[in-house]
Amino acid sequence: MKMKLLAGLVLAAALRITSAQTPGPSSGQMPKSAHPTFDIVTIKPSDPDSHRQGIGYHGRQVDATGQTLKSLMMFAYGVHGKQIVDEPAWVSSVKFNIVGVADIPGEPSLPQMQEMYRKLFTDRFGLQLRHGKRELSYYAITIAKGGTKVLKAKDGDDASPDQTGEGHGYMEMRFTANLMSDFALGMNYFADRPIVDETGLQGRYDFTLKWTPDTATPTESSPVPGLFTAMQEQLGLKLEPKKGMVDVLAIEKVQQPSAN
């Protein structure tokens, strides 16, 4: 079985990605108890001819390049694109560049960046959502026969989650201090349907996953298997296709952002 990749989606929403800018001196991590918002922020339409895409940060600066509101919502709410419904066409077609500064010193964690963007959606896009459920096809992450092979996070359950990845003709993703729900979020960006954690595993884990996308073929020099096989062999986890009631975010009101 193969998983269809979503063309054009970047890892930005799940990965710590740095932009082309040179970062300044680190100011350390933002306090875990902090609830940051954008102190200063500019939102501009992206150059339609540019292929640069990403979400990142440098100290207090938080930026997004070449992102639609839908891709930003996927990041901020931790959902697959098919879990965002009733949106006007521009939400998934118009791309924006966003540059802002957090109102609290330090580098934000992934949950803090998500919180900043959720507040921005309300303030600048006038976004109003209704939470609900709809019947959708999805992949469930479950434990394979023989048991899981993932290891508990070496830094414990208080560590901040991180995901990094790179391509070599195959994909290699490193997951550090991830809940299984964090892992599901990261893998959503490679799937044509939502991925839902149904492992029942608690706590945070460290692991690496290597797989060949279904747009490529394993070779003798790179005999890396496809995603379904890789997850079973390397992690002791399975992806099971299912259909059922899945959480969705229905857009009730939204507008293109106000001018800076």
Automatic annotation (TrEMBL):
The keyword Signal is assigned to this record: yes
UniProt xrefs under Pfam families: DUF3738
Keywords: Signal
Signal peptide: 1-20
InterPro entries: DUF3738
Designated name of the protein: Soil-associated protein, TIGR03435 family
